[in-house]
Write a structure and sequence with these properties.
One of its GO terms (cellular component) is membrane. The chain has 1 helix and 11 strands, in the order αβββββββββββ. The chain has one helix at 2-35, and strands at residues 39-50, 57-70, 75-87, 90-97, 101-103, 107-111, 114-120, 134-147, 150-152, 157-164, 181-182.
Length: 194
């Protein structure tokens, strides 16, 4: 009789383990099917001021066009998007989009982050050096995916966009054009914009 109760106990444990594995696999499949989601691209940039002064101040005027492409058949709820700009590993601007918005399936949404002002940077570069306007843009996004009445994906993503932004002269032209850049994660290796 002890052997019989032992075998039932082992059978019950095996059934529980199999059920947990199946439920876990189903959850991971749903997560995989949904999270192949939004693509983030910087499709336009305008830099009209970017000069380091003798007192290490960086006056800047950077305007961007960022697209959020939802290629899935699911609704995406964007709770908050934070866009931060860096030059030579030092932050010089941040913009937040706090208003939550819904992105319908098979849709592209355009955001317009603007970085305008002055920031103090501590750079070890000789005076009168022309700065290469290479900017690292970091996006901190909080998407949720909606499947029916179920909302999943309350995690945060950190994405990076390494941009070569041409400096527009006072007459409104630049020597080069901006190339569209896809934002990727995890973080890029050490980045130095000089």
């Amino acid at each position: 009789m002890a052997e019989n109760s032992c075998s039932e106990w082992v059978r019950d444990i095996c059934c529980i383990i199999i059920i947990v594995i199946l439920l876990d696999s189903l959850f991971l499949f749903i997560l995989w099917a949904v999270v192949i989601g939004v693509d983030y691209h910087v499709v336009g940039a305008s830099l009209t001021e970017f000069n380091l002064t003798s007192d290490n101040m960086l006056p800047h005027n950077l305007r961007l066009n960022v697209t959020l492409m939802n290629p899935t058949t699911k609704i995406v709820l964007h709770r908050r998007i934070e866009v931060t700009a860096y030059y030579c590993d030092q932050q010089f601007g941040v913009t937040n989009f706090f208003a939550p918005f819904r992105q319908v399936p098979k849709n592209t949404t355009l955001l317009h982050p603007v970085f305008h002002g002055e920031s103090r940077l501590f750079l070890d570069i000789p005076k009168n050096t022309t700065l290469r306007p290479t900017v690292l843009l970091k996006l901190h996004v909080h998407p949720k995916y909606k499947i029916g009445s179920l909302k999943i994906g309350a995690r945060s993503d950190d994405l990076n966009c390494q941009l070569m932004v041409p400096l527009v002269s006072s007459v409104g032209s630049s020597a080069t054009t901006f190339k569209s850049t896809k934002c990727v994660g995890p973080p890029l290796p050490e980045f130095n914009g000089r």
